[in-house]
Structure formats: structure tokens, C-alpha cells
């Protein structure tokens, strides 16, 4: 497999061919810039310095000699090569025929899944008075990995440097992945990549790249905007060939046509520069380095979207919310993720995890909550989606600027609450009420996420329902315990329900610093005495926790419960050991925060009056 040129240290160029075709002479003529009188059976390996190539990459030239090396040596050299030059003599018909009968089958047999690019080199043109390239076209059509054919003369030095230029170009800007000679058109993989690029650059989503969008694209890819005359030339070419009006800009059809034209004119580097700027490697897959930048998250820290990241996601939402109803319909959602291999999340799945409108469409608040959830629990997925959606293009960097690594809880904006309780206690109903939904059978997700206002600040709370494997065991795995706040749920109408959460608390949370809130579900039913040594209220007093909070979906859902849980997660230091009076402290802080907002509004009004 050919490595991505951006990560490749050296291009290995292998010269093969029949005896006496001039392989060694070509190499020696390049090095000495004169025809050698004495030619050895094989040349030593030669390195072309990096500063000779535009990409600043050195090339290593390897000669093969059937006199000194075995066929196994040849096979090993083929496997190590990045590009292979098959040298033939223009005055030797048998050496031309052997390209198809021997050399190409051998190279194919010993190539990886991605064929080696091949350059045909016709040597000794000083011995004939005609071009033989016409006889080579049939071979090139048969073997699509052949990039080009060039005729040269080691004796007169004609086109000697060009041989190695085209060999380097075959590695750095290969034709086969981006163009189909058989169809005389862009390859399907190339079209797919360019369509994604076009959609990313079409910032107003109108199906055209206007002058501003074209200049941004040009600056991003080639570090300079289009000159006015060049922009008009592009439009004239499109108008002449596609009869497209230039008033609105370049359409997708025109964008693809231009790249087709570049390749047909031998300017592969133009298309490859664009593809690589948008993250593609030589196989037209997104490179891992582009998708997943390296990041270190210390123990005890979490990851959240930064202000830049949130702004990018907000702009993306607004771009595809075409009816401006602050919600994404299934079609709008599909369009938004059309630059990704697949939609980020199943629409039906996330609609039961975050807030939706009356039609069941994901709202802006729900969309942002889903991103917060993913960034918290699956950062690589966030990196991947940001890359596919074009974040790197607008930021001129990578996805790291879209992420904050946060340690102190007071500085964070996303928290995780584990909802724990026996089967049937009401955990799922409690979690679904957080996003104003009723539980439907078969919903697979254990997460719900929504935003909460805490002391005038917007926080995102993630509820994770912890499923109990056995009612007889209160043992939880470490990852089921570790969270910012725990919500222990029991059914006040079931006398056996509280015992489970009581045992869970004693075993896992009594000695921990994790805040805990106990919630009595099904408050619309009759409360019964719990079959436990201590009743819930007494249990909370004994362990110096806030009293049990009552909840029922059939009565008015208590949103204040989620505010309390979020406040406990954000400010755990307010809950001192034995401080049941935390609620009073919380109320005092809330009053102070509210007063601060009022004062700020008054001051702002006074400034406006002045």
C-alpha cells in the first residue's frame, strides 16, 4: 500500500526491465549529467535530495540487475517500492511486449490491495526517428495502474530528469485513485470526496459556490484567493462547456467538471492538494491523523465542547434548519450529516435521548445536549464527526480547539448523574421526564441529556440509567459508581424497593465524596412502610443526606429535582459532611444569584439611558 505522502519520509523508486534496455545508464546519466562510458551491471542506490521536490520529500532510486540478483530479490524490491519504472528500449519490440507478458503480471502479483503506480520509460530514442508511444496506449488501457509513459535517451540526457519527476508525481499525485481511464471521468471515490468538500464549502447551502465561498476555498487549499481575472476565467470555462450561468457561482456539476479538466490536463496535483487539505489520504480514505488528533485527558478531568466548538455546531444547526423552526426534521437531519459516511446517530434513537418538539423533531437544545453527551462519553466520535463536518477547514487547524479539558467541577458545564434502583422502581420514567417524554417499550438507550439553569448558568446534565442484573445483589462495577452525582430511586408503593438502594448506598457511596439524592417515585400511589430497618426519611437523617424527594409522572413533573441534582454535581463542596442544611445554602446562593442578575439589568439600563 502506498503511504500518505504527508507522513512518508522517502519515496522509493524501483527501476526494472529486461537486460540491456538501459536502466543503469539512466540512473548514472541523472547523477553525473553525462553519458557514462563504463556501465556496471547494477548501480548503487541513489538518493535525490528533498529540496529537489516541491513537497520537500527525498527519493531513493533502486536499480535491479538480473545478473547480480535473484527473482526473490526482485519480489522483495517490488514490495518495498512506492513506484516502479519499467524501462524498455524503443528499438526492441520484445522488451515492449514483455511489459504485458511478464513485468506487469509480476508487479500485480506482488502488490498489496492498492496496486503500485507504474511509469513506463522508453529509452534509446536517440536510435530512432519516430515516437513509439502510440504502441504503448493499448498497454496503458489494460493496466490502469500505469500512470504515464515517457520517452528518453540516457545518451543525450533527453527527458532523464523528467523520468524521475513523473515517478515522484505518480506517488505524490497518483491518477488511478482519482480518475477512471476506462470511463474518462473522475473515479466514484473521488466524486464522493469532492461532493463532500463542495457541501462543506457551500456555507449558505444554496447549491452554488459564490465568489466569497470560492475565495475561502481557494485560500484554504492554496493559501491565496483567486485573482479577479482568474475567477472570471473559471466562470467562462464553465459557461462554455456546461452552459451554466455564472450569476450564482459554481454549481456542484461545475465543481466536478473543473477537477475532471485538471486531471485530463495532467494537473493531478491540483485535485490532490484539495483532497489532502480536506483530510484524504492516497487511498481516498480520511486519514486517522485528520480524524483523531492526539489529546491527553488527565485522570479526574472531563471533556466538553469549547466556545468555538459550540459556535461551530450552532452555525451548522442554523445552516440546515431551513424552515427556521429551531428543530431538525428527519430530512434536515439527514442533510446535515450528508458529509459523513453515515448519520452520526440514529434519528429515532437520539429522539428518545434528548429534547424534541411536538412533531418529535430534535430541537436546538436537544441537538446541543446530544453533542455534549457524546463529547463527554465518546470523545473520538466527536473528533471524527467534527472532521467530516468540516470543522478543520474553518478553524485552519484541527479539532483540539473545539474541546476543553476541564478538571474542577465548578468550571465545568456538563455533568453525569447515575440513576440507580431496583427493577420496576421507576428509573426509566424518571429519566424520560427529564426530556418531557413518556417511556416507550423497546427504547434501547440508557442515556438522557438536557440543559438546566443553575444560578443563572446553563449546564448540561446527563442521566445514565444503571440497569440492575440481580435484585439480590447490590454490587456495582466501578464505572457504574463513578459519576458527579448519584440518584437512588425507589418505589414508595413497593415495601421491598427501598432496601436495594439503601444497601447500594452503604456499600458504594457512604464513604465516597459523590453527592447522593434519594428519590421516592410513584408519588401518585399510596406510600407503604418499607421492609427495612430504617425508613427512608430516617435513613437520610442517619447518613446526613437531604430528605427523600418525591416524584410522579402522573402529577406535575418536578423540574426542580433536576436542578437540585445538577447543583449537587456542580457544587459538591456545599454539601459538607452532616450538612442537611445544604438546601438552605442552595436557596441563599440562588437568591444572591438572582439579585446579581437584577442589579446587572438595572446597571445595564442606566448605561443605555446615559
Supply database-style keywords:
about 600 residues, alpha/beta, Rossmann fold, Recoverin, domain 1, 4 domains, 6-stranded mixed β-sheet, 23 helices, 20 strands, elongated, disordered N terminus
Write a concise synopsis of the structure shown.
The protein has about 600 residues and is an alpha/beta fold. It contains 23 helices and 20 strands.
Question: How far apart, in Å, are the first and last alpha carbons?
Answer: 70 Å
Under the CATH scheme, which architecture of the largest domain would be assigned? 3-Layer(aba) Sandwich
CATH topology of the largest domain: Rossmann fold
Structural class: alpha/beta
Report on the biggest sheet: 6 strands, mixed
Morphology? elongated
- CATH class type of the largest domain: Alpha Beta
Uncertain regions spanning at least 5 consecutive residues: 1-7, 576-610
Write down the domain tally: 4
Oligomer: single chain
Binned, the helix content reads 40-55%
Figure out the total of helices.
23
Number of strands: 20
Strand line-up of the largest beta sheet: 2-3-1-4-5-6
Q: What is the beta-strand fraction? A: 15-25%
CATH superfamily of the largest domain: P-loop containing nucleotide triphosphate hydrolases
- How confident overall, as mean pLDDT? 86
Provide a descriptive summary of the structure in words:
By secondary structure, this protein is an alpha/beta fold. It has 4 domains: 5-174, Rossmann fold (3-Layer(aba) Sandwich); 185-284, Orthogonal Bundle (Recoverin, domain 1); 289-407, Recoverin, domain 1 (Orthogonal Bundle); 410-586, Rossmann fold, CATH 3.40.50. Helices cover 41% and strands 16% of the residues. The protein contains 23 helices and 20 strands. The chain has a 6-stranded mixed β-sheet with strand order 2-3-1-4-5-6, sandwiched between helices. A 6-stranded mixed β-sheet has the order 16-17-15-18-19-20, sandwiched between helices. A two-stranded antiparallel ribbon has the order 7-8. Helix 9 (252-264) crosses helix 10 and helix 15 (364-377) packs across helix 16. The longest helix has 28 residues, at 582-609. It is elongated, with a radius of gyration of 34 Å. Residues 1-7 and 576-610 have low confidence and may be disordered.
Amino acid at each position: 500500500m502506498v503511504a500518505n505522502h504527508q507522513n512518508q519520509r522517502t519515496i522509493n523508486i524501483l527501476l526494472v526491465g529486461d537486460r540491456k534496455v538501459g536502466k543503469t545508464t539512466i540512473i548514472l546519466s541523472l547523477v553525473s549529467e553525462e553519458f557514462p562510458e563504463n556501465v556496471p551491471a547494477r548501480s548503487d542506490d541513489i538518493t535525490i535530495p528533498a529540496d529537489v521536490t516541491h513537497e520537500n520529500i527525498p527519493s531513493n532510486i533502486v536499480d535491479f540487475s538480473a545478473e547480480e540478483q535473484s527473482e526473490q530479490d526482485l519480489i522483495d524490491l517490488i514490495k518495498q517500492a512506492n513506484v516502479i519504472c519499467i524501462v524498455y528500449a524503443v528499438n526492441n519490440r520484445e522488451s515492449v511486449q514483455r511489459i504485458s507478458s511478464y513485468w506487469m503480471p509480476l508487479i500485480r502479483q506482488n502488490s498489496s490491495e492498492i496496486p503500485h503506480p507504474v511509469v513506463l520509460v522508453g529509452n534509446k530514442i536517440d536510435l530512432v526517428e519516430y515516437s513509439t508511444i502510440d504502441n504503448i496506449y493499448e498497454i496503458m488501457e489494460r493496466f490502469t495502474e500505469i500512470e504515464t509513459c515517457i520517452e528518453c535517451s540516457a545518451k543525450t540526457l533527453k527527458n532523464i530528469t523528467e523520468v524521475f519527476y513523473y515517478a515522484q508525481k505518480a506517488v505524490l499525485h497518483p491518477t488511478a485513485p482519482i480518475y477512471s481511464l476506462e470511463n474518462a471521468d473522475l473515479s466514484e471515490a473521488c466524486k464522493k470526496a469532492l461532493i463532500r468538500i463542495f457541501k462543506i464549502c457551500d456555507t449558505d447551502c444554496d447549491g452554488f459556490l459564490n465568489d466569497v465561498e470560492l475565495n475561502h476555498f481557494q485560500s484554504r487549499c492554496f493559501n491565496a484567493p483567486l485573482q479577479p481575472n482568474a475567477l472570471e476565467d473559471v466562470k467562462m470555462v464553465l459557461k462554455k462547456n456546461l452552459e451554466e450561468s455564472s450569476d450564482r457561482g459554481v454549481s456542484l456539476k461545475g465543481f466536478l467538471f473543473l477537477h475532471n479538466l485538471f486531471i485530463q490536463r495532467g494537473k493531478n496535483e491540483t485535485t490532490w492538494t484539495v483532497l489532502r487539505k480536506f483530510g484524504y489520504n492516497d487511498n481516498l480514505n480520511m486519514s486517522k491523523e485528520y480524524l483523531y488528533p492526539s489529546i491527553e485527558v488527565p485522570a479526574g478531568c472531563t471533556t466538553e465542547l469549547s466556545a468555538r466548538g459550540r459556535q461551530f455546531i450552532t452555525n451548522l444547526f442554523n445552516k440546515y434548519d431551513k424552515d427556521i423552526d429551531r428543530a431538525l426534521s428527519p430530512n434536515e437531519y439527514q442533510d446535515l450529516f450528508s458529509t459523513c459516511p453515515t448519520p452520526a446517530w440514529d434519528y429515532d434513537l437520539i429522539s428518545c435521548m434528548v429534547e424534541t418538539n411536538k412533531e418529535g423533531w430534535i430541537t436546538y437544545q436537544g441537538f446541543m445536549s446530544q453533542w455534549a453527551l457524546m463529547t463527554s462519553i465518546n470523545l473520538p466520535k466527536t473528533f471524527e464527526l467534527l472532521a467530516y463536518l468540516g470543522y478543520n477547514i474553518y478553524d485552519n487547524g484541527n479539532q483540539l480547539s473545539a474541546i476543553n479539558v476541564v478538571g474542577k467541577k465548578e468550571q465545568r458545564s456538563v455533568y453525569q448523574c447515575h440513576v440507580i434502583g431496583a427493577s420496576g422502581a421507576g428509573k426509566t420514567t424518571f429519566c424520560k421526564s427529564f426530556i418531557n417524554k413518556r417511556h416507550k417499550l423497546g427504547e434501547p438507550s440508557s442515556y438522557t441529556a438536557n440543559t438546566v439553569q443553575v444560578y443563572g448558568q446553563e449546564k448540561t446534565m446527563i442521566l445514565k440509567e444503571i440497569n440492575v442484573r440481580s435484585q439480590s445483589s447490590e454490587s456495582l462495577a466501578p464505572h457504574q459508581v463513578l459519576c458527579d452525582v448519584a440518584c437512588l430511586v425507589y418505589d414508595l408503593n413497593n415495601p421491598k424497593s427501598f432496601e436495594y438502594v439503601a444497601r447500594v448506598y452503604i456499600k458504594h457511596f457512604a464513604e465516597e465524596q459523590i453527592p447522593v439524592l434519594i428519590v421516592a417515585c410513584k408519588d401518585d400511589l399510596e406510600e407503604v412502610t418499607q421492609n427495612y430497618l430504617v425508613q427512608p426519611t430516617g435513613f437520610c437523617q442517619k447518613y446526613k443526606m437531604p430528605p427523600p424527594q418525591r416524584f410522579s409522572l402522573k402529577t406535575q413533573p418536578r423540574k426542580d429535582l433536576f436542578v437540585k441534582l445538577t447543583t449537587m454535581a456542580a457544587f459538591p463542596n456545599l454539601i459538607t459532611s452532616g450538612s442537611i442544611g445544604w438546601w438552605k445554602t442552595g436557596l441563599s446562593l440562588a437568591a444572591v444569584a438572582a439579585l446579581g442578575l437584577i442589579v446587572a439589568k438595572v446597571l445595564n439600563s442606566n448605561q443605555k439611558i446615559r
